[in-house]
Model the fold of this input.
Amino acid sequence: MGEKLDKEAFKQKVFDWEKSKEWKYQGDLPAIIDFYADWCGPCKMVSPLLDELGSKYEGKMRVFKVNTDEEPELSGMFDIQSIPTLFFIPMEGEPRFAMGALPKKELEKAISEVLKVE
Done:
């Protein structure tokens, strides 16, 4: 299961926007951040897929979860307007967003192409 992030954990493990305006990922492995809400049907479809892929690629990437209802500041900072929104963070380069409930095949393609995880 993905690790749930609040504002402080996000600043430590992903990006501290209060220290730097320029994106700098602070993690040690590529990551996917799932912006979700408990009441969101499509989010409930994506969550088990992310858990499965997190297990499959354990030690190669991380899965984080941000509850948009509990963390409105994080959602606002990334201009999250629809959920689920997935944030793919490679070790090098800019992160990419994907909106909606992606099928497993597309998630695996993004893990391979964006995160460079095999």
